[in-house]
């Protein structure tokens, strides 16, 4: 695999994004809704740079069926807090086509939050098919399949502290395990 963002680069990008989030909410209580499972590591890091009162809620969404191409999308919201009347920030690992975030935002909009915004670690601009942008982005990356810092290939590699592009052999190997 080839590292494209080191642990130190990820940390400073996340801290910088947390700074922009802090400025935007000016001390207002914030409910973070983390899209499981890819945003797990980002969630843990970003909330420790926030100083307003923070609630954490989880939602599960998946569009990838184990491979590197998009498939059907499903959402599970049974672990959601009540967010009606609250300022909500959805946190996800990557904005690829944008379909996952679009569906999650639509689902939460129906819960009548006071405001709704989104933050992602990574944005692959070349792949975007929806006509909105996430409010906060830590890094723009080229259209390559990446793993680490929460992102997986067939549920593996989420634990890597850096972000890497897999080699074709590693993709073939993953499919065999
Ligand atoms: P979207 O709906 O196409 O924006 O896809 C978003 C979801 O696809 C993310 O939450 C990831 O779970 C997954 N995904 C997209 N690109 C990658 C990648 O390069 N590596 C790992 N997962 C990815
Ligand atoms: Mg995901």
- Count every helix, treating DSSP H or I runs of 4 or more residues as helices: 4
For this structure, the CATH topology is Rossmann fold
Distance between the termini: 17 Å
| Poorly predicted segments | none
The CATH top-level class label:
Alpha Beta
Can you name the CATH architecture? 3-Layer(aba) Sandwich
Which key phrases capture this entry?
Rossmann fold, alpha/beta, 177 residues, 9 strands, binds inosinic acid
Summarize the structure.
The chain is an alpha/beta fold.
Describe the structure.
The chain is of the alpha/beta class. It has one domain: Rossmann fold, CATH 3.40.50.2020. Helix content is 27%, strand content 32%. The chain has four helices and nine strands, in the order E-H-E-H-E-E-E-H-E-E-E-E-H. The chain has helices spanning 7-25, 40-47, 99-109, 168-176; strands at 2-5, 30-36, 54-64, 70-76, 87-95, 115-123, 136-140, 146-147, 163-165. Strands 4-3-2-5-6-7 form a six-stranded mixed β-sheet, with helices on both faces. It has a three-stranded antiparallel β-sheet with strand order 1-9-8. Helix 1 (7-25) crosses helix 2 (40-47). 31% of the residues are buried. The site of inosinic acid has 17 residues, from strand 3, strand 5, helix 3 and strand 8.
Topology of this structure?
Elements: E1 2-5, H1 7-25, E2 30-36, H2 40-47, E3 54-64, E4 70-76, E5 87-95, H3 99-109, E6 115-123, E7 136-140, E8 146-147, E9 163-165, H4 168-176
Parallel strand pairs: 2-3, 2-5, 5-6, 6-7
Antiparallel strand pairs: 1-9, 3-4, 8-9
Helix pairs in contact: 1-2
The protein binds inosinic acid (IMP) and magnesium ion.
């Amino acid at each position: 695999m080839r590292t494209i963002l080191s642990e130190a680069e990820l940390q400073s990008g996340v801290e910088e994004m947390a700074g922009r989030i802090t400025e935007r909410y000016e001390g207002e209580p914030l409910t973070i809704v983390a899209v499981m499972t890819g945003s797990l590591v980002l969630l843990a890091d970003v909330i420790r740079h926030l100083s307003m009162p923070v609630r954490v809620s989880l939602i599960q969404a998946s569009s990838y069926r184990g491979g590197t191409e998009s498939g059907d999308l499903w959402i599970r919201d049974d672990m959601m807090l009540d967010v009606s009347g609250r300022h909500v920030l959805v946190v996800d690992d990557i904005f690829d086509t944008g379909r996952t975030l679009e569906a999650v935002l639509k689902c939460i909009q129906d819960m009548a939050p006071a405001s709704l915004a989104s933050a992602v670690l990574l944005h692959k601009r070349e792949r975007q098919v929806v006509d909105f942008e996430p409010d906060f982005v830590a890094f723009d990356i080229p259209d390559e399949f990446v793993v680490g810092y929460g992102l997986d290939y067939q549920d593996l590699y989420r634990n890597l502290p850096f972000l890497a592009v897999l080699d074709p052999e590693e993709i073939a190997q993953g499919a065999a395990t």
